[in-house]
Amino acid sequence: MTALAFLVLGLYTIALLYITIYCVMQFNLLYYYKRGRRTTPEMIMTEQEQPMPVKAVAAADHGTGFGSAIALGDEDSENYPFVTVQLPIYNEMYVIERLIDAVAEFDYPKDRFEIHILDDSTDETIEIVAAKVAEYKAKGFNIEQVTREVRQGFKAGALRDGMEAAKGEFMAIFDADFLPKKDFLLRTLPFFEDEKVGVVQTRWEHINQDYSLLTRLQALQLNVHFTVEQVGRMNGEHMLQFNGTAGVWRRKTIEDAGGWEADTLTEDLDLSIRAQLKGYTIRFLENVGSPAELPAEMNSFKSQQFRWMKGGAETAKKMLPTVWRSGLSLTKKIHATSHLLASSVFVFVFAAGLFSVPLLFFLSDLIELGFSKNFFAYFLVGLLSIIAIYYVANIQSPANNEKNFGKAVFKFIVLFPTFLSLSMGLSLHNTVAVLQGYRGKKSPFVRTPKFNIKSIKDNFKKRNYLTKKLTWTTIGEGLLSLYFIAAIVGAIYVQNTTFIAFHAMLAVGYGAIFIYSLRHLKA
Question: Which of 186, 191, 205, 392 has its CA 20 to 30 A from that of 230?
Fold first, then answer.
């Protein structure tokens, strides 16, 4: 029995150690984020300011113009770089029209950009797009609906095949749920003056952040990535990533890096790593926002999480050996490894929760053998790190759209514990995704359906694309909620409350994910 107790303690400790190391690496990005904001002009501009003129953007970053009309203000449109705007879509009847309308509104010479809707749809989206293309062709826009006879490679395949018809020197990419602003090209293209810049990525904004608790919690998490993580990596000169949408690629960069590949579910991360290993850099613009719709329905959100987590594991398996064989410095290799293994933290969160229950009942025996419960206090550094990171990202960064500081802090205090709880509740679902990724189990690219949800008046009930299938993972989430409720009862019975707060958060997290998943199945 003693051996089993120490085995459980060892497994739990390993899980906590991994989580703590992950949190400390994130805190290191926070350090670079805070340090860089004081010295980089592009970061200093607040979200409330008017967009900077193109010439000013380029000058603020490099001290010179773009070397063409886009920076110098020449009205001769022939001097503007030619851009291909790619819109890869699949069955997006509810949102595709608004995306096309938004792109057609770009403040950019009409004859210097083309719009390619890479349409792999199998439903009425095809007719909706065709009508929209005809409408804008009649207005003089260079716009095409690009379809494929054989839909291979999903989004990566569509982008790869779409390159053959593209004429642009630069490739701007938007998913169907985005609403890019009019000045998007004017705000992003000047940064390509630096020939080492292969990608310019903008920060995601959230048009339906206040729709529900689910969308608020997603915004809380995404704001960390699109502030502390991306800016921290850029300021520390570590590897960033293109986020699949709301960014611009230099065409030559895509070609030099080997092009889009469909052997992972995160083709964006994969190509980002390959491009940076070729010597290109990614420029992230924290103060240039691109609004998008967050998944408002739990099962759609879970499918998005599954794709991101599994794709992250697939990309780590594919690219980590190449990263470690490269000529990068040791520090950059370590940060790239942390970046690529980020999805794996859910495996250890799941393990920590699972093993904490038997450990609860072994603790008295372990204490008699000299083990001190104070040992667990050392791991609080991870929790404190995450609190600091999320506070900065959601209160002090441009992602905070709440003008009242006190109200913003209050919202954070309420939402953050809820976010932690539901993140733990997702750990089973995301662990399955990560393990499938490392095992090499292939699955189709399941896109996240969007329903044009912008305010509380909108809803997704009785819409197409909703899943009606109850999965074993969802059943497992319900059972795990009962597992941790039983642990709380057991803790009270044996009068050991060491893990009671942890188990309460796990019970609520798994229970909420389970209930939301069931409710939205019936929507």
Answer: 186
Are 460 and 448 contacting, i.e. CB atoms less than 8 angstroms apart? Answer: no
272 and 131 in a common domain: yes
* Band of pLDDT at residue 126, cut at 50, 70 and 90: very high
- Output the pLDDT for position 465: 64
Three-state secondary structure string covering 345-388: HHHHHHHHHHHHHHHHHHHHHHHHCCCCHHHHHHHHHHHHHHHH
- Cα 100 to Cα 102: distance, rounded to the nearest angstrom: 5
Closest among 283, 211, 317 to 42, alpha carbons compared: 283
CA-to-CA distance for 125 and 177, rounded, in angstroms?
A: 14
> Does 444 or 120 have the greater pLDDT score?
120
Of 119, 183, 268, 270, the catalytic one is 268
Query: Domain tally for the chain?
Result: 2
More confident residue, 225 or 153: 225
Q: What is the SS3 string spanning 269-280?
A: HHHHHHHHHCCC
* Arithmetic mean of pLDDT over the chain: 90
* 130 and 20 belong to one structural domain: no
CB 144 within 8 A of CB 114: yes
Of 119, 120, 161, 177, catalytic: 120
Predicted confidence band of residue 64 (pLDDT cuts 50, 70, 90):
very low
Shared domain for 108 and 22, answered yes or no, is no
Range of the domain at 173: 38-301
Domain membership of residue 57 (yes or no) is yes
Tokens of 438: 């490392």
| Residue that finishes a domain, picked among 236, 268, 301 | 301
Is the distance from CB of 262 to CB of 152 less than 8 angstroms?
yes
Q: Give catalytic status of residue 183 as yes or no.
A: no
CATH number at residue 113: 3.90.550.10
Q: What share of the chain is helix, strand, coil (3-state, %, to 5)?
A: 60, 10, 30
> Among this protein's residues, is 120 annotated catalytic?
yes
pLDDT of res. 456: 61
